[in-house]
Amino acid sequence: xxxxxxxxxxxxxxxxxxxxxxxxxxxxxxxxxxxxxxxxxxxxxxxxxxxxxxxxxxxxxxxxxxxxxxxxxxxxxxxxxxxxxxxxxxxxxxxxxxxxxxxxxxxxxxxxxxxxxxxxxxxxxxxxxxxxxxxxxxxxxxxxxxxxxxxxxxxxxxxxxxxxxxxxxxxxxxxxxxxxxxxxxxxxxxxxxxxxxxxxxxxxxxxxxxxxxxxxxxxxxxxxxxxxxxxxxxxxxxxxxxxx
Amino acid sequence: xxxxxxxxxxxxxxxxxxxxxxxxxxxxxxxxxxxxxxxxxxxxxxxxxxxxxxxxxxxxxxxxxxxxxxxxxxxxxxxxxxxxxxxxxxxxxxxxxxxxxxxxxxxxxxxxxxxxxxxxxxxxxxxxxxxxxxxxxxxxxxxxxxxxxxxxxxxxxxxxxxxxxxxxxxxxxxxxxxxxxxxxxxxxxxxxxxxxxxxxxxxxxxxxxxxxxxxxxxxxxxxxxxxxxxxxxxxxxxxxxxxxxxxx
Lengths: 244, 248
What we know:
The structure holds two protein chains of two kinds.
Chain A: E1 7-14, E2 24-30, E3 35-39, H1 46-53, E4 61-66, E5 69-70, H2 74-83, E6 84-87, H3 100-110, H4 115-128, H5 144-156, E7 162-166, H6 174-186, E8 190-194, H7 198-203, E9 207-212, E10 215-218
Parallel strand pairs in A: 3-8, 3-9, 6-7, 7-8
Antiparallel strand pairs in A: 1-2, 1-4, 4-5, 9-10
Helix pairs in contact in A: 3-4, 3-5
Chain B: H1 17-33, H2 37-54, H3 58-82, E1 87-91, E2 94-97, H4 98-121, H5 127-136, H6 141-170, H7 179-209, H8 226-245
Antiparallel strand pairs in B: 1-2
Helix pairs in contact in B: 1-4, 1-8, 2-4, 3-4, 5-6, 6-7
């Protein structure tokens, strides 16, 4: 375990506007493990949790701490967002440039790299994810799986220390899913993964946390395990009931 | 969405979009405001000449021209009958005016000239280059953003609308002239609007997370070369000559 966690949430509460019950209540969380999986039922606040980490939502109460210092202003947020990449659930929300290369280079350009350097970083990143040749492809015409991988490239191009992945395997075919798992296993980054895909969580060796009633708690160690069994379409991602 | 015209390697494709935008704006302004046949005719010839410089397949452009002339066709139907002035000839009780015919011809020449020039000058650059070029020509940044983002998302929004419309069709919705139909379309449009709004919010979030602070930095720097200066000068001389024809 390290001394200072990259990200720390202290006593965070958040209530959506026009809502009475808070979605997160006095939530405390700090990242020590490299791979964290987050589970929880629909609407329990998993995505809200991510949005608070990257400062897209400002908590009503509590503190967001980045590398040991409390995040207060825009400059702090910029520093945090450089280091923490957020892969959205829907890649169409993430890819907004006409071509792949422009989208991947967008982050580096904003970080102050000149166009030639940004292009180089983008090419390297695409290359690294096995996406060379995709540079001039039109983003909205990519397949769902390709979009997901390109969206990941746009984030990795900023060379973050941590990845927040919001249901990354949703709607991916087994092949792309396998490719994504391979990439994530290879990356030496902190990863927090929201997923309903048990098998995926176990393959990324995640320590599991569950968000429930506005709180987050660590699941028991033996909670996750892999079944070997046969049934129809068994090589497809599937889930089993949470309660065993 | 395919930007067919932007693919190519002709003289015009290689020109800097800034030079092409200025040329097109000047040419269109002179042509559109002119009332002279000489100018309209000359601009059509110039449009055709520019188009040949692009080396684009003629069929594609003819299709576009056909669409545009769908509009001028209606002018031919109405102007000669309604414009008044001196009579050219009459068919029964209907008189056809000379001024009406003249105006319809003038508009047709101008329209085709302008469309050809725009295809040749602006169509040969990608929308994103044009957006960035407009920005570097110091047009209001917000308008440039709107151009760039409309281009990227209009298709996505359309698909979203189609999905909703299909869902309605799946539940046996058949449009007719009833309040139910109007209400349903109202819901469909309203829902598309809300979804687009939400999507816009999420896209903005994605951009902010990657360090966006209000400035889009173009990746491909179009380099303004001496050839562009020559091109722009030639276009300006031609356009000035056209403007002079007004007074000839």
